Amino acid sequence: MHKRLVKGFFENAIKMLSVEGEVHVTHKDEGIYKTWNIEGLAFSAGLDLHMQEKFRISEYHGYKNKYGDGQHPDDAFNLGKCKKFKFGKPKLLVSQITGSQDQPDREER
Q1: What is the pTM of this model?
Q2: In this structure, are residues 30 and 78 in contact, taking their beta carbons and an 8 Å threshold?
Q3: Cross-sheet strand order for the sheet of 82-88
Q4: What percent of the chain has pLDDT over 90?
């Protein structure tokens, strides 16, 4: 169910993105969550991965995670290892629209 929600989010996001706009998604990068294949879900919606980096909670003042469901929906859970993914329209398409030949490779691992 949650993977379908994320895929639907990507499918709608690409319709609303400006030419150089980005979609940022934070996702766990361990255990069963690695099988979600976030990059594949985005790609199937027409998005390209522009960058991925370690999620640093300190960069998000006031950020609080919570379960959102179950017996204690407002309780925080251990974030563990997470990544922040940045997706956008394919770079080739962007360069064709903007006329830019040089698109810097911004991917960080």
Answers
A1: 0.75
A2: no
A3: 22-28, 82-88, 48-54
A4: 56
Round the average pLDDT of the chain to a whole number and report it: 85
Q: Where are the alpha helices (DSSP H) in the chain?
A: 2-16, 38-44, 91-98
What is the residue whose two structure tokens read 């609303």? 16
Count CB-CB contacts under 10 A for residue 98: 11
Average pLDDT rounded to a whole number, residues 9-32: 93
Q: Which residues contact 7 (CB under 8 A, 6 or more apart)?
A: 41, 44, 45
Q: CA-CA distance, 107 to 36, in Å (whole number)? A: 20
CA-to-CA distance for 21 and 89, rounded, in angstroms? 8
| Helix, strand or coil, per DSSP, at residue 52 | strand
